[in-house]
Write a structure and sequence with these properties.
Blueprint lengths: L14 E2 L2 H9 L6 E2 H5 L9 E5 L4 H10 L7 H27 L3 E5 L15 H19 L7 E4 L33
Parallel strand pairs: 1-2, 3-4, 4-5
Helix pairs in contact: 1-3, 3-5, 4-5
């Protein structure tokens, strides 16, 4: 039909949105290979017309690891809330960097599903599930959903029931898979 599509996928497992979360993860034994701001944003194509972002999933295990290591002391909710604010700041930095590189691309963001309801958390303690929920809801509500505008589309993963169906994930219960009966190919 005359369309040319160039796809650049710099997504790297265990990458967090900002270097601050990489530092936090390293302090508490998490493997973090980089941050979107440092290792992915510089590669946004200057002629990009659409940019998609799915950030926040790696933040939850990092926050819970920090809480398990004593971060937050007697007020874990205050610690989680501070991490949510940092996530919002990192998101603003990421978006500003994308716009600085590519001008005005259409930006499509997936908000953060409630990790407490995802299959990988099925055997977690109540405290872990509550921390995961507070972080995910906070990131989605305070940092991602308010970004909806004429140039940013937010895809609601938090309220989509498919985000919590075990058969939609690999055996780890965290990484999504596509059943063989579906096809992701489209003719352009």
């Amino acid at each position: 039909m005359g369309y040319t599509v160039n796809n650049l996928n710099p997504g790297i497992p265990t990458t967090v949105i900002g270097p601050d979360f990489g530092t936090l993860g390293a302090m508490y034994g998490r493997t973090i290979v980089g941050s979107m701001i440092e290792t992915q944003m510089p590669f946004v194509q200057t002629n990009a017309t659409v940019v998609t972002i799915f950030a926040g999933r790696e933040r939850d295990p990092t926050i819970r690891a920090a809480l398990g290591g004593g971060a937050g002391g007697s007020d874990p909710n205050a610690f989680i809330d501070a991490q949510v604010r940092a996530f919002g700041n990192d998101y603003a930095t990421l978006l500003a960097g994308i716009r600085a590189r590519a001008g005005s691309p259409r930006i499509v963001i997936l908000n953060v599903p409630n990790a407490a309801g995802m299959p990988f958390m099925a055997g977690a303690s109540l405290a872990d599930r509550q921390a995961a929920q507070r972080a995910a809801v906070g990131m989605t509500k305070a940092a991602v959903n308010p970004l909806v505008s004429s140039s940013i589309t937010v895809v609601d993963m938090m309220c989509d029931g498919r985000s919590y169906v075990p058969s939609n994930y690999f055996s780890d219960g965290l990484h999504p898979t596509m059943p063989a009966t579906r096809s992701c190919r489209r003719r352009l």
